[in-house]
Structure formats: structure tokens, C-alpha cells
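Here is this case:
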Amino acid sequence: MEIIVNIWNKIKSFFKRGNNKYTQKDSPFHTLTPIDNVENGEVYEKALEYALSQESVTNIAITGPYGSGKSSVIKSFFKSKKYKTITLSLASFRDCSESKNFENGNIQREEEETINNTETTSSNSHLQRLIEISILQQLFYHEKDCSIPDSKFKKIKRQPRWKLILFTIGGILFFVSVLYLFFPNFLKLLIAYDATNWGANWNWFHYIAPICCFGVIAFALYKISRVLIGISIKKLNIKTAEIEIDQKIDKSILNSHIDEIIYFFEATKYNVVIIEDLDRFEQTEIFVKLREMNRLINNCNKINRKITFIYALKDEVFADKDRTKFFDFILPVIPIINYSNSGEILRKCLSNEIQSNEKTRITEKCIYNISIFVNDMRLLYNIINEYHIYSKKINKDQNLEKNRLLSIITYKNLYPKDFTDLAENKGKLYDAIRKKSDLITKDIKLYNQQIDEYRKRIGEAEKQWQKDIKELRLLYIGVVLAENNVNSHTLSFDGEKVSIFNYASNDECFNAVESGCVYYMQPNSYPDRERRIAYNFNDIERKVDPNQTYQQKLQAIQDKNSIDAFEKQIRELEEKRDSLYKKSLSELWTSQTKENQTDNSQEAIIDVFIGNGYINENYYDYISIFHEGSLSRSDGIFLINVKRGIQNSYDYSLNQVENVYKKLDFYNFERPATLNFDLANYLLMEQSETKATQ
């Protein structure tokens, strides 16, 4: 019978493959499930074949980081090998409640006792029990009831119509048979039939009735015996006396139901159990219990075969040497994708988009910038799948830049919650895009500061009445001499007589003036005597001008010759300042990212994508479908930006200007975001036409 079923399944699978509309070569899409044809996987197959052939090896670990292809290695190996496998894949239970309808109420009662003692039960033990329940559920729900008829874990079964009809007919036949054998007169009264021919016409039923009664009774006894075997008596109270049977020694679900687990493997033919995702919970205690369970199963004489447990997990689950003590064989899987080669895989999958001659084709630079954030094959395939869907659904007119579309899809896969928030005008990416106005304001402030500085220097230069530096220095030298009652016009420097005019022309001489110590030759004395004058130059500066120092005056005199250059600089700065609104977000963002270094991966990808122009203020084009009506796509973006207070460039092109104007509210014109050449021209024309009609 089993051979016939296998042949039938192969026939169905053959025709199912023939009916597939697409093959992987024809379709741009990729499945996210493990594959069964790992490239260059011969060494993995040989290692697994060796481990499974060893009688002493019953616990095998296949290790590697997430997305390294552990499940694909397992699937590829067992596709062609004659092993009976069952796969247990553990989901996350951290936010889930326990199953209350398993084991025919036994676990429910145990968990009710646990809930009553939650204050003393740790979260780790609670999570461990959830994992154990899931393991039991996946084991027993995987099999049909007919394969494990003696299990006390009963499940809801859907009875087929033919079986219900058969039971109905059998019940009626049993009832009639009982009446025929034990109450023939009542049957004659019940059935209006000629009594003279009763014996002759029902002679055949005389043989069928006993067989029917015996068969139904035997079937009922068979079912009752299975039910009685499955009953587990825990307590029997007789007045004040109490007998307790089947008392739980351990609260562990697996330990409590080891008999059921052994029966499961005794009744089925599984010899390999594959356990995936168990490392996500960081509960090493469950591995110990599974190892104990594996040892009990393999030591049980009822099971005449070796049962091997294969775990797919991360390398870092066990610290130091613990993993080599726990597992009998460890098979490391080298990741097929990482940050260094994900770009090559992405380039291969999107080769048509890269080789396109269109201006909007995906560039090599974009592929590289995306690949440095992706190191998971399933994530990469999902990015490609969603890119193709968005490209066909949103980019119908092929007007959108493919670099930006691929980048926003990548961000969607890396940070789906923040992508959802983006559509609702919130989240980190939205806040980053909103920084454009802040960056413009910041740069405007810097330009204004530079312009004000140049204008201040021009003003100071124009107010300065001294013609040159020599005249300025003579002013300070004169104050020094006057303050010290020196009438001499001859000063001394290095023992030489120097006139004050030459003293003012010489930089070294005037440095002495600034240092607060000069010498002069006393007049009308023979021979001339050199005298020293000591003073505080700051006091001299305040006497000359309390509002301006010597260096400031010196700078103003020097700036007199640069006024034309300053005015040119001001004009250039004003042009740069006024052109800020025309700059893209990426141009404004470049300086921002240089100043703010970050180790946060989300902030890093935002910096890279915005800085390179892959995500900008026009992101709405790439995340939603625009329905053209009275407005074009660009008109709709302009309105959205106006209502959000985001400044568009003054020369932003509007198609349906009149309709744009009608959709603006009065208060919108109080915002700078409405400043637009097309809109201004429309309003001027409307105003002139109104005056002409008047």
C-alpha cells in the first residue's frame, strides 16, 4: 500500500511541475524558502553522510550565522537520501500565551497551576515550557491519528461525509439486527409487512444479523479499550482516604511526557529529527533536555533504529568549548553572502536594470552603496522581488529614477516600521528628510554672517580718516610723546637717532611702541642723552579711540584697498545664499554628514542614501500610486510640500497652475513654500485681467 501511495505522489508532483507557469529562469522573482540544490555543497553532503552513518553520533549541529544557508544544506542533502525526517521549526513565544487545548486538558491543568504561581516562576522557565509545548505539538500534529492511535493527545478531526454515511447505515443495521434477534415480534409490529411471508422473505437476514451485531460490538470494545488505555488516573478520593497515582516528578513538559514521545517514534518510522530556530531564544537548558530525550529514545529497546537529532543554529549559542561537549558532530556552513559579495549577487539579479541604456538605469555606485548594508540572502531576494513589483506598479511611465526606487525598497526591508511611519509623516527617515529646511536655514545664517562681516569691514574702512599706516602710527606716537611731556621730534632705536616720521615707517620701531617702551634723545643737552619712556599701550589706545584698538584701525586702513573685492565677495555670497532653495537635499546633506559621525546602522544608511540622492523629498513618488486627474504628478508633489511647509525651488515647474491655485488655502500663502514663478505669473495675469475688465 505504501509503495502505491509513493508512486501516486510522484505522479502528482510530476504533473504539478508541468503545470507551473513560470520557471526561475523566466521569472525575475525569487522564493525566500531554502533551496534544495546548494552550489558546491558536496563537502557538506559527505560530512553529513559520514555523521549519520556513525552509530555513536546522535546529536549533530549545523552551525552558521543567520542567512548562511543552513536550511538549504539540510534540504539539499535529504532530498536524495533515504531518510525519514521530521522538521521542528520553533517560532518566537516571547509575546505569546501558552497553548491551552493540547494533551486533552492535561497541560491546561498544569499551566493553570503555573499561572497561580507566576510570582515565583522566572520568565526563562516560562519560555522554556512554551518551547517544549511547541516541540510536542509539532511532533504529534505532524502525524495522522491513524499513525499514532494509542496516543492520549487527541486532536479535532474532520469526519468525511462518506464515513458519516457509513456510520449511519451501520447504526441502523445494528439496531435492526438487535430487534431481529431479540425482539422479532416488535420488529413485525414496527414494519408493516405480511407476516405470512416474514420468515421466507427475511431468511437471508437471519445470517447477517448476528454477524452485524458481533462486528459492531467488537468494534466498540476495540475503541473502548484504546480509550481506557489512554486514561491517566491521577487522584482517587474515597471519603478522607486519598490515593495518588502518576504524580509529576518534574515540571518539564518533555520529561512528563517522555512515554508519549517514545511511543511516537515506536509507532512511526522517523529516524532524523531536524530542529531549526531553537537558538533564537538563547535558552541552552532546552538543548540539555533534548539531548537527554535523544538518549532515552536511542536506549529504548522498543525502537529498533537510531534516531538522530540535527540542530541548525548559530555558532555563538554555546560559549567556549561547551558546544563540542554537547554535540557529537559539528558541521560549519560558510555563508554564501556577506557584505563583501552581496553586491555581486544583487548585480547579477538586476543585470537587465543595470545594462539598460536609459538615463534612469541602476548604477554600479548605487549597487555598491546598497550592498554594504545587506548580508542576508533572503533579505536580498525580497528586496529584488519588491523592487520588481513596485517598478511595474508605480513606475509605469518609466519616469522614476531606478536608483531611488531600489534604495527606498532596500530601506523598507531593513527598517519596515520606519518605512510605514514615513507614509504617516513620522519616523527617523521622515525627520531626516524634513531637515532640508533646517539645513537651508543653517546655511543661510552662515552666509549672512559672512556677508555682515564684509559689510562691517567696508563700513569701518570708509569711516577711517587716516590715509595710510604711517599716518595712523604717527597718531599713536604723538599721543605717547604728549602723555610723557616729550617735545623732541627725534626718537632713538638701537642707539641711533630716528625721526618720528621714519620711526612710524619702520615696523620694528613701531613694535617697540606697541611693547610699551620707547627711547628718545633729550634735546638741548651735550652730549645728547638717551631717555626711556615706559607706559601701557592699552591706555594709549583708549586715549586715541575708546571704541577701536590700533589693530582694528590698522585692519580698516588695509581694507580700504579691498573694498571692491569685498563687494564682489558679498555679491557671490548673496547668489549662493539665494540659490540654496534650488539645491537638492543631498547637496545640503553632504556637509551635515561630515560633521556628525555615527555608529548607528539606521542613521548610517540614512546618511548614505540621502547624501547620494537615493532618497529625497520626492519620496512619495516611490512609495505610493499617483492617480492623475486635475493635477499632474509634479503638481501633486508641489501641493503636498506646500501643505507640509517644505520649500520647493522657485522655478519648480507646474502644469495645471489654475487647479493648483484653487486647491491652496488662504493661509498657505503666508508660507515661503508657495513662492513659485509659475504661480506668481498666474496671479499677476489674473490681476491684470481683473483690472482690464474694470
Observations:
- DSSP finds 32 helices and eleven strands in the chain.
- The radius of gyration is 46 Å.
- Residues 584 and 616 are 8 Å apart (CA to CA).
- The longest strand covers residues 308-313.
